[in-house]
Amino acid sequence: MDYIGQNFDSSSVTKPSAMCKYVVGVFNKRTGKLRLHDTRLFHMKPKLPGELSEEKESVKKDLSFVEKNDMLTSAFGSSRKRKAMESRLKNQIEGDALDAAVGAAVDQALSVPDIDYKLAPTKSQETASAVPPFNKDADRPQDVYQLHDIISPAEFEALHHVAKTFTDVSKKTLAEWSKTEMYPSYILKHLSVLPVQEEARSRKARCLLYMYYLMKLHSLRAADLKRNDPLPDEIPEVVRKKLLNMYTLQGGRGRKLIRCMPIRLKDKLVSYILVLGLIIDEFNMELSVLQKDIKVGQQKMFNHLRALGCRLHSQKASAGSGKTDIRFASLTTPLTFPEIRAKKQKERR
After folding, report:
1. What residues have CB less than 8 Å from 89, skipping those under 6 apart?
2. Per 3-state DSSP, what percentage of the chain is helix, strand, and coil (rounded to 5)?
3. Angle of the 198-219 helix axis to the 237-247 helix axis, nearest 10
4. Is the pTM of this model over 0.70?
5. Would you tell me the crossing angle of helices 237-247 and 153-162 to the nearest 10 degrees?
6. Which end of the chain is more exposed for a tag (fewer CB within 10 A), N or C?
7. CA atoms within 13 A on the CB side of 16
8. How far is CA 178 from CA 112, 175, 181, in A?
9. Residue 314: strand pairing partners
10. Residues 12-26: pLDDT tens digits?
């Protein structure tokens, strides 16, 4: 009579006890000795002839060595070995599920029609994509970059009512804003010299307000971007959607959507801030105040300005007992852009 050992019989009355030690004896017919091995409590049941179907027998014969070893570990293995086996099988299942998910995503992407899959952009292409639309054949600086390419007509109209906070600002309110640092220094500096003429005053105020929104977005940290609404509440909805869609990315992690700002989009945001600053300052912009507000290194800011076609120059100004250089960026025509030179690779000897 053959017997089968099972340690998962839920119908058995006898339950394993922590106070008992269980062993199984293996009798060696050749030597006549009995060897004891530690084991868990299991029950021996007789195996009746013909109990297993031919299909089940064939399945067992087709099992690999690892699968058969797993069956033995499940039946007679120690707790440590069984936990290791369960962990390995769990990781294997999760890996298969991941492969299936990735395969499905690739199949879905390849099934979408009319999509051009291109190689990763070069450094020059990335720089060009960060520069706002411009007219390289312009004869005047004011024709190079257009305001409607930075602030859309819909956004400009939506800012009309909100910008009254700037157009109607008094000297007393402006002094309070300066004291409390309500707005960046660049904004406060230009609010103190707004035009008197109503139309020009409204245009300048809207440009400054939009500049404030851009600078606010630029100052957000990664943790701030993860919030559902990282921008100030008073921003018009059409402006909010444009800024978040243009300068941030949103992706899924499980059921939660996470927003981020890659370096290339942050560089693009800096370029748009600088172009708007050039328009506000009539294409001759003093750099020190804006540079401090957006916290960009001097060399990086110079690189952005050169990529926009600007020329850099400095002027001497009195500062206390001495003089200091004040940096300016001016846009002149015809436009000149820096040449991107390929670095020569050193030959290995």
Report:
1. 70
2. 50, 15, 35
3. 50
4. no
5. 130
6. C
7. 14
8. 54, 5, 5
9. 327
10. 546 666 677 788 888
